[in-house]
Amino acid sequence: MQSFMRAVALVGAFNISVIDVPKPTIINSTDAVVRIAASAICGSDLHRYHQNSASPENPQQIGHEAIGYIEDVGDSVEFLKAGDWVVIPFAFDDGHYQYGPMIDAPAASSIAEYARIPFADESLMPVPINASTNTSTIHDYLFMSDILAAGWTALDFAGQEPGDTVAVFGAGPVGQMAILSAGLRGASKIYVVDHVQDRLDLAAAHGAIPVNFAVEEPVEALRRFEPAGVTRVLDCVGYEAEDAAGNVNSSIVLHQAGQVVAPQGGIGIVGVYGSGNQEQTVDIKPLFMNNFSVRGGVSSPLSLGTQMLNLIMTGKLHPGSIISAVIGIEEAPEYYARFNRREETKVVIEFPY
């Protein structure tokens, strides 16, 4: 007899529902089935949330940040067993890992009670959790699945070195991870640009100097602080960036980054581009005249797993400090709406385990 579980799904634009779906089982010998202990709502979920690509008749499960323990493994899984705690990264490894996500990976449906993970030995990230591990540590490990890796990677893309100044555009979850990481990596000053005051206040508590673009023009503000420019600039926003009037302008962060980065500096882009229909128009002259570098793309949690784990285990990094709400799965529709209105910074969904 088939078993069912609760899962979060899109059923239309700005419309989330909690539905019953079949509980996953082992299909291939390299699979594992993970009992989810905690998932999270990600900013990149909102790109799908804004699109009318699902319906009640054709629901689409959502979510790609999760942690839990293994319930079952296929016969070919060698290094994992039932009971092991693992982080589920948003991108999997089929043994021939390429940079970037596997488009059809079921991690895009991990706000659910269970998830089937292919290529489990290569794809799952074991973490040292036992009966004495507290909830805050579990939440710290959870963010290894995506946002911590993204924030760290933005700094890698920008080429951060100790002593650099750093400007982070976007004080959402990835921007907050970039701020925590930049401080740990020796930034001399960190600036953050956003217009959501609660998020700016949180960033300030983590050591960043806030710039509210609804109050002051960010290029002018950053140039006032750093007349020679900011050494490393991070785009943690992407194609749904807004201007001071609240209008979507998918080029504005890229344009402003080019105006504030110092000569010989670097821009790192981890905000999502390519998912929408908007075109980006950027003036290439500052790049040519000031000889700064630009690099962007998708992060790789699997490549950073050991490094992230060590930073959390040694107490040097506490990514769970950005959580604004912990909820149960039935509250997900309300909290997707709250997150979309920027009334929450990071929402974690907990499951009984």
From TrEMBL:
<dbReference type="InterPro" id="IPR036291">
    <property type="entry name" value="NAD(P)-bd_dom_sf"/>
</dbReference>
<keyword id="KW-0479">Metal-binding</keyword>
<dbReference type="Pfam" id="PF00107">
    <property type="entry name" value="ADH_zinc_N"/>
</dbReference>
<dbReference type="InterPro" id="IPR013149">
    <property type="entry name" value="ADH-like_C"/>
</dbReference>
<protein>
    <recommendedName>
        <fullName>Alcohol dehydrogenase</fullName>
    </recommendedName>
</protein>
<dbReference type="InterPro" id="IPR002328">
    <property type="entry name" value="ADH_Zn_CS"/>
</dbReference>
<dbReference type="Pfam" id="PF08240">
    <property type="entry name" value="ADH_N"/>
</dbReference>
<comment type="similarity">
    <text>Belongs to the zinc-containing alcohol dehydrogenase family.</text>
</comment>
<dbReference type="GO" id="GO:0008270">
    <property type="term" value="F:zinc ion binding"/>
</dbReference>
<feature type="domain" description="Alcohol dehydrogenase-like N-terminal">
    <location>
        <begin position="30"/>
        <end position="119"/>
    </location>
</feature>
<dbReference type="InterPro" id="IPR011032">
    <property type="entry name" value="GroES-like_sf"/>
</dbReference>
<dbReference type="InterPro" id="IPR013154">
    <property type="entry name" value="ADH-like_N"/>
</dbReference>
<keyword id="KW-0520">NAD</keyword>
<dbReference type="GO" id="GO:0016491">
    <property type="term" value="F:oxidoreductase activity"/>
</dbReference>
<keyword id="KW-0862">Zinc</keyword>
<keyword id="KW-0560">Oxidoreductase</keyword>
<feature type="domain" description="Alcohol dehydrogenase-like C-terminal">
    <location>
        <begin position="173"/>
        <end position="296"/>
    </location>
</feature>
